[in-house]
């Protein structure tokens, strides 16, 4: 008679324990054991956080232990049980770890592989091959694609959070009840008395301070004090909530007929607007052509002067908002959107400042170009309109589409195509934690028809859907690769654009993440042929392209992966998008958007179509009323909070990997991230406005809020 010692660990979540019957079957390469009862009900086993051990007697030689089957059967009342892991000590003294980290619901069972990750081509035993295939068949029936809205990335086929598989639900649904959280936020912020005061305008800009009785920080107070300044307006394009739109401008678009005469008073390098725009290429070529290629010392200095002095014009174009329907869910309040174009300039103090704003995509007499030299309220109102438009793009495209929906798409494909034993599944699982759940709750309560989004946002009532549909037509895989996204906008030169902390910190986190992914993947993929021969990883990539992105021709998502380097980049995109990119555009919302005039969620008067009409009264009538301001404030506060027991980048408490080489790679990753965090802390000590959104110790592993 052979004796196996079986150790079973129960989860620490609330209600993780069970009083049900738990059975185990050990499966070896030669034989399998009889089903053995591990616990008798009400004997205090399998309680929350418990680690229980049992002896399992087996009459025959099982051979090499390859599978463990756990079954749960109802005793009195049906409950769920969360199993963390099972460890088996064999008669020879070998300890075999079987990671689980899953819920057993109702009278269900789970079959576990040992913790060593394996590619499909490495499985030789027929039993494990069959189990691998069976697991995927069950997963594909459980995790089904569904089109929530036409033109969106595909999402999970579940209408409510409680309809999701238990393994991907929040531990407690109360944790992510948007209505409850927003109400709690409004109470915490002491703005209860305003939340139903729709159609009631504020009297003065200073009145917005009345909803800031509590919860201020350094950044918020600085924004409140300096939001009207052109330098603060420009700084937000680099390091605010939406630092992904600004791009270098080499040629003015025809739809923005700005002349040198209009902006000359804003340029401080004694160059014309045309020289600032074209010198990087055209003027340098002409200079060399005129002087020949035998340059004197003086000519070289002059050439370098033009090369480095010019190229200081940047642009932000909100053309995606053109034609998008404004919120009309409240018949008592007309709401408006605009699709502005903002021209920016880097002055000799290396500050980004606006030099021209057109509030329409169509030039003409009804679309004046507003300038810093205009009347104070004309210029202020134009900037407010740009900030409102930026808020719409940020919330719907930068945040919702490019982090939430894209991460969910990757997560669904992962569950459908990669078994738990696959190294890529083990790598990605912490980075999709609660992502499908948060998005399902958002579709259930936040962005649905009549949801919270409709209460305060100018694109509510369907405009946000149109905006995502338009943005999907230009979304590409390369635009999700952080270095490529920066280069595409010609914002990669640190000397030309200093103090772009989103870029600088993002590069460091991207490289650290890519190095970690590479360290892990190189353990399992020794060459490109190993990637090409992995049918599961190829199916995963194909599922993302063909179903998640609905086989879009323009998207550039790969249909297959042909090299190890392609695989590493692909997985880095997934991890970075879910962690760093989401953190960069989510957790600063309260800092930058809580001061309502700096980020109006809606506008109640149309954009001005001529100069000289703006007054303080018009601005107050345009900005959100008291009720919408309160809902907006509650929203950005709630969305900026971390989850309870948040897991930050590099934290992997669930040991899906058991191999020492992977654990060493994780430790190396954590040390590198800690170094980045420390250097950012030191830098921020000297700053009036610290930039900490990409500090690794503030980056959650996944999109979960």
UniProtKB/TrEMBL annotation:
Domain PLAT: 2-118
Cofactor dependency: Fe cation
Binding site for Ca(2+) 2: 39
Any one annotated GO CC term: cytoplasm
UniProt cross-references to Pfam families, sorted A to Z: Lipoxygenase, PLAT
Pathway per the UniProt entry: Lipid metabolism
The protein's name: Arachidonate 5-lipoxygenase-like
Species whose genome carries this gene: Gouania willdenowi
């Amino acid at each position: 008679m052979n004796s196996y010692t079986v150790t079973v660990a129960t989860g620490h979540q609330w209600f993780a324990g069970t009083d049900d019957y738990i059975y185990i079957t050990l499966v070896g390469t030669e034989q399998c054991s009889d089903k053995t009862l591990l616990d008798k009900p009400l004997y205090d086993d399998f309680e929350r956080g418990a680690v229980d051990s049992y002896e399992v007697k087996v009459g025959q030689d099982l051979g090499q232990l390859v599978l463990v089957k756990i079954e749960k059967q109802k005793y009195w009342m049906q409950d769920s049980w969360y199993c963390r892991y099972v460890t088996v000590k064999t008669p020879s003294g070998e300890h075999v770890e079987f990671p689980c980290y899953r819920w057993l619901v109702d009278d269900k069972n789970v079959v576990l592989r040992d913790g060593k990750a394996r590619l499909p081509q490495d499985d030789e035993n027929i039993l494990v091959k069959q189990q691998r295939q069976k697991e995927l068949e069950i997963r594909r029936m459980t995790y089904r694609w569904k089109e929530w809205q036409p033109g969106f990335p595909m999402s999970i086929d579940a209408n409510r959070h409680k309809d999701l598989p238990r393994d991907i639900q929040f531990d407690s649904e109360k944790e992510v009840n948007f209505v409850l959280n927003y109400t709690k936020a409004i109470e915490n912020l002491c703005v209860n008395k305003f939340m139903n005061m729709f159609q009631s305008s504020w009297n003065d800009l200073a009145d917005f301070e009345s909803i800031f009785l509590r919860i201020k920080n350094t950044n918020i107070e600085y924004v409140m004090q300096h939001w009207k300044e052109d330098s603060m307006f420009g700084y937000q394009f680099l390091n605010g909530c939406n630092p992904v739109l600004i791009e270098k401008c080499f040629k003015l678009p025809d739809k923005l007929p700005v002349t040198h005469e209009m902006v000359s008073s804003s340029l401080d390098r004694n160059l014309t607007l045309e020289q600032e725009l074209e010198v990087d290429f055209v003027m340098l070529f002409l200079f060399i052509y005129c002087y020949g290629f035998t340059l004197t010392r003086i000519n070289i200095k002059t050439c370098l002067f033009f090369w480095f002095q010019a190229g200081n014009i940047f642009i932000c174009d909100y053309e995606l908002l053109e034609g998008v329907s404004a919120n009309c869910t409240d018949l008592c309040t007309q709401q408006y959107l605009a699709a502005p174009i903002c021209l920016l300039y880097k002055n000799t103090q290396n500050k980004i400042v606006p030099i021209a704003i057109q509030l329409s995509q169509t030039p003409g007499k009804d679309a004046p170009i507003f300038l810093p030299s205009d009347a104070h309220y004309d210029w202020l109102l134009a900037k407010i309109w740009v900030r409102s438009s930026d808020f719409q793009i940020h919330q719907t495209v930068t945040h919702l589409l490019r982090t939430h929906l894209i991460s969910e798409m990757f997560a669904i494909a992962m569950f459908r195509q990669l078994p738990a034993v696959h190294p890529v599944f083990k790598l990605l699982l912490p980075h999709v934690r609660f992502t499908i759940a948060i998005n399902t709750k958002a579709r259930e309560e936040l962005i649905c028809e009549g949801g919270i989004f409709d209460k305060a946002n100018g694109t509510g009532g369907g405009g946000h859907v149109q905006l995502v549909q338009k943005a999907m037509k230009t979304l590409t895989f390369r635009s999700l690769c952080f270095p490529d996204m920066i280069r595409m906008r010609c914002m990669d030169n640190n000397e030309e654009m200093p103090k772009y902390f989103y870029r600088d910190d993002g590069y460091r986190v991207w490289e650290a993440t890519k190095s970690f992914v590479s360290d892990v993947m190189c353990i399992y993929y020794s060459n490109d042929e190993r990637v090409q021969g992995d049918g599961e990883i190829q199916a995963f990539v194909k599922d993302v392209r063909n179903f998640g992105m609905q086989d879009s021709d323009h998207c550039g998502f790969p249909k297959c992966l042909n090299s190890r380097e392609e695989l590493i980049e692909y997985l880095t995109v997934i991890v970075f998008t879910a962690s760093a990119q989401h953190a960069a555009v989510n957790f600063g919302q309260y800092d930058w958007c809580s001061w309502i005039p700096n980020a109006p969620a809606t506008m109640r008067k149309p954009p001005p179509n001529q100069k000289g009409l703006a007054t303080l009264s018009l601005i107050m009538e345009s900005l959100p009323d008291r009720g919408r301001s309160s809902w907006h404030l509650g929203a950005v506060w709630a969305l900026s909070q971390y989850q309870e027991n948040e897991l930050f980048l590099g934290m992997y408490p669930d040991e899906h990997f058991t191999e020492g080489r992977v654990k060493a790679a994780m430790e190396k990753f954590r040390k590198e991230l800690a170094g980045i965090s420390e250097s950012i802390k030191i830098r921020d000590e000297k700053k009036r406005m610290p930039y900490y959104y990409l500090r690794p110790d503030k980056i959650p592993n996944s999109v979960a809020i």
